[in-house]
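Hi team, as promised in this morning's meeting, here are the two structures we talked about. I've kept the exact order from the run log so nobody has to guess. The first one is mostly here for context; it's the second one we should focus on when we meet again. Sequence first, then the predicted structure tokens.
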Amino acid sequence: MRYYPVHLDIKNRNCLVVGGGSVGTRKVTTLLACGAKVAVVSPQANEELQKLARAGSITLKERRFRAGDLDHMFLVIGATDDETLNRQISKDAENRNILCNIADRPAVCNFILPSIVHRGDLVITISTSGKSPALAKKLRKTLEDQFGDEYAHFLTLMGNIRKKLLRQSHKPEAHKHLFNELIDKGLLEMIRDGRKTDIDRLLSNILGKEFEYDSQTGSGKWKL
């Protein structure tokens, strides 16, 4: 199987999780973190899901899955240990052209979930096309050690600089070389090492004094 890699925008989209155990809870947590409107269907739901429901963070239906639960859904994730039910979820989703993932059952999915490394706006995804989740997990841990929080700070800084340049009527192509120069001259490493004086000097030399670090990130937001 060859998968088409894609990152989905699910903010404010209706997403369904079928299953109220630990696997379903992990799926719910990830969906919520990405801004989805999450509904859960399960005859039994653990305390964490119950809390989320009481807080109004999710809609919880404590009963068995029905095909109508898929109405108006953008995607569904099956997280049950009932193989017959998992296949029914997949079939019903396919009939409605809805994105469907069944946990640990790539054969009945039309998309699979990669292993993920998050560093702010940096998102690194690892997939073995369903062949070896254990390898994906090992690679994730390796990358988590390799990519630290400096990448999150770096991307926030670069994003704010880009917005400011665009407000000054710069065309995106016109300042590509500026970002390449910032990277080539070690801005990321300066952030990692907390070298604020060097950061300000570099930003000032390449972009101008109005682009110094504190003015782009908020003074004191990160301890450098």
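And here is the second protein, the one for discussion:
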Amino acid sequence: MNAPLDLMRLLRPKQWVKSLFLFVGLLFGHAWGDASLVWRVLAAAAGFSLVSSCIYILNDIADQDADRKHPRKRNRPLAKGTVSLNAAIALALVVGVTGSILGYYASPLVAAMLALYGLMNIAYTLGLKRVVILDVFIIAAGFMLRLLAGTSGVGIPPSQWLLLCGLMLTLFLGFAKRRAELGDADAGKAAQRKVLRDYSATLLDQMITVSAAGIIMSYSLYTLSAETIAKHGTTLLMLTVPFVIYGIFRYLFLLHQQKQGEDPAAEALQDPHLVVTVLLWLATTLWLIVR
């Protein structure tokens, strides 16, 4: 009971990869040379990671009975009974308070964004997760708060095109997650996540298509905009667009042909094609804007 490994699993550290969204401002804002700013972004990223872990624990506490009926989620520490309720509550308090302190170190605005993130996710857990379409927009809002915390929150002016691209990307991942959960939904799965009853494969596929097109168009327009060219001193950032397109198409392949997509953060790290694509995109971007 309460083994360290089970407590770590309760934090879902694989999901901390979502905090990479906070580093977009450092990269595209040419702010990596400011050590103080880098430390503040690192603190904000750690703060969002820990507060998100707090939210995951609270979700597991609220959903533990439903999780026991799910073929995969029943192995979560609380549902399985390998972590006690008291230990889970204590751990949630520790990581939640620590994350909030780190957010305040980054800036009071980041701390306010963390508070909004927490309140929004509590509302999601208490009922908004059962409201069709709004449930995905709330998930996307969590990512957008990360983007804003890593830009406006630490004093880096955000690119409007990149914010739009981020919104499209997070909606794409959210609707793809619902599509994977729907699958060949049986009565048990529908009962486990009630909002799936209001979705259909056709509806979700249309939303995914619109979101995917939005990602490609907004990112492409960002690379071609006069503001971007002036800021980075290059017209060649458009060379990174094929990596974005390939990554989206690869994710759609995993979703429809490999029946993946329920856990975007974990699956993105496990698929070698996506990992290599992201690394090539990052290397090309750095080569173009850092020289």
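Starting points for discussion:
The two ends are 53 Å apart (CA to CA).
Residues 159-291 form one domain.
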